[in-house]
Amino acid sequence: MASRSSSASRKSSASRKSAPSRKAPVRKPAAIAKSGTGHLPEWNLADLYAGIGAPEVTRDLDKVDADCKAFEADYKGKLAEETAKPDGGKWLAEAVRRYEAIDDLAGRLGSYAGLVHAGDSVDPAISKFYGDVSERLTAASVHLLFFALELNRIDDDVIERAMQTPELGHYRPWIEDSRKDKPYQLEDRIEQLFHEKSQTGYSAWNRLFDQTIAGLRFKVGAKELAIEPTLNLLQDRAPEKRKAAGQALAKTFKANERAFALITNTLAKDKDISDRWRGFQDVADSRHLNNRVEREVVDALVASVRAAYPRLSHRYYALKARWFKKKTLAHWDRNAPLPFAATGAISWNDARKMVLTAYGDFSPQMAGIAERFFTDRWIDAPVRPGKAPGAFSHPTTPSAHPYVLMNYQGKPRDVMTLAHELGHGVHQVLAAKNGALMAPTPLTLAETASVFGEMLTFKRLLAQTRNAKQRQALLAGKVEDMINTVVRQIAFYTFERAVHTERKNGELTAERIGQLWLSVQGESLGPAIEIKPGYETFWMYIPHFIHSPFYVYAYAFGDCLVNSLYAVYEHASEGFAERYLAMLAAGGTKHYSELLKPFGLDAKDPKFWDGGLSVIAGMIDELEAMG
């Protein structure tokens, strides 16, 4: 769960890093990988470009260069004066349209390079291509930096008058969103320096992390495994394999702790410098601004979840230990399959059918969009050496379509991951009509769509299951997923806060980072999980800590919100699906509070989060009653 990633940032792709925060490959167009779960599809990136050597890539990079320079020449230094004129609204609308077109093309290039890299981050040619494209886009977009800065310096009354023009009024959500960054903007040349130095700063460290993780090998028995199949063994039915995998992970992480500590310290310091210059008061305030969510709302969520640890994770893991006829479970047994769970891998075709049927029961339109990911080969499913771990749905750009990356191995949790990422994908397809500037959704609402997709799939499977033990196993699996989504992610957030706060006073040793990790894990997991030696290193592989600091609370936000949203759905009359799809189609054009109003939900209500957490607690009540 921790490695899922999703929606693009609110920032335009032309003015940020060139690639998605979790990236991804060019595979042969007709490639289909065989596995024990049947034929697994590999995505066809030719919808973006035919290959890393395609002449269209060079053509479009040159066009981005030229368009950015021309844009700067036409508009720099003119925004305040021209917008104040009688026809200023139309003039500025044309500028925004040109900016959006550049953003779309740059987004296509950056997405392609990132997707290629996620498919094989250790291939030297692909790594060079990814780095070269990132550098070209960063260099080109330097010529666009002035635009947001000047736009935000226009007087409030002038910009408001200009937005009365229908052409500019269309972009009101994006303009108002952009102007929320105004208090944290720096002088133009400093912004340019920050932007250009990102390639040798945080972007370079992100890339080093990706390549290091992909290159690690873990000795499990006689095999040398990459990280994804090793992590997968923690869900193996054989206890000796889980133990061997847990110990192998710890051993390899320990051998590489200096590198991961350096990456973590450097990125935390880099963020601290940026936050200090921009005037952010709290270590997570920049993320809250990016998510368009208030700090007090996140603080209330975190406080509610931490207070609920005893009635959620502590209670569930004690129950799970009893099912294994033990008082405690070693940390490598936390996600062990239940003794009474069904055995055997779920084929890819069965997983596809499960998810599409669940989506179709809710909304034929939703299922129709999701089916395109299969028929048009927008999914890359097999496990491969060098491929990015985890899963994500990357929206690319509105003129194209999203792509889903998975590492499918036939586990029940993999089916839920498929449902999760397709939720993102449907959301991204529906929101694309808003254009490159207004399609991206804050991470909090992006996770709502994905978790709702999971819930639809789970509820359908539960309704179909007649065997009492299999029903119990299915319910327990859902509780585990929800604990991983809510409890574990809030523990991650607490850990990140501790690391970034302490980093202000100097570097943290790998040992100290491990101590902070054990502290938050012990608090969240509870006494029924025995933390064995070596677990202090497990912070090292979580990609969100590196790519998207403080991203993780969005999962808990989305899960608790979906619990409340699903309760509305279960008691709603006709029309819920239409309202839900309309919410997704809004993309980034409305604040989350406005989008939730039609469902009677208010995340600012202090009791809101407790309602979502009570759904999880109620499922644990049901499990306890089953014995």
Explain the overall architecture.
A hairpin with a 2-residue loop joins β4 (about 220) and β5 (about 225). The two termini are about 25 Å apart. The strands form four sheets. The chain has a four-stranded mixed sheet with strand order 1-8-9-7, sandwiched between helices. It has about 625 residues and is mainly alpha-helical. The model is unreliable at about 1-30 (pLDDT under 50). It is about 60% helix and about 5% strand. It has three domains: about 5-205, Oligopeptidase f, N-terminal domain (Butyryl-CoA Dehydrogenase, subunit A, domain 3, Up-down Bundle); about 215-340 and about 485-545, Oligoendopeptidase f, C-terminal domain (Neurolysin, domain 3, Orthogonal Bundle); about 350-440 and about 455-485 and about 575-625, no CATH class.
Question: Key features?
Answer:
single chain; 627 residues; mainly alpha; Butyryl-CoA Dehydrogenase, subunit A, domain 3; Neurolysin, domain 3; 4-stranded mixed sheet; two-stranded antiparallel sheet; 29 helices; globular; disordered N terminus
* Class derived from helix and strand content: mainly alpha
Task: Return the CATH architecture of the largest domain.
Answer: Up-down Bundle
Give the name of the CATH superfamily of the largest domain: Oligopeptidase f, N-terminal domain
CATH class descriptor of the largest domain: Mainly Alpha
Instruction: Report the uncertain regions.
Output: 1-32
Fraction of residues in helix: 55-70%
Topology, number of strands: 10
Strand content: under 5%
Rg from alpha-carbon coordinates: 24 Å
Integer average pLDDT = 91
Number of domains: 3
- Main-sheet strand order equals 1-8-9-7
Q: Helix segment count? A: 29
CA-CA gap between termini: 27 Å
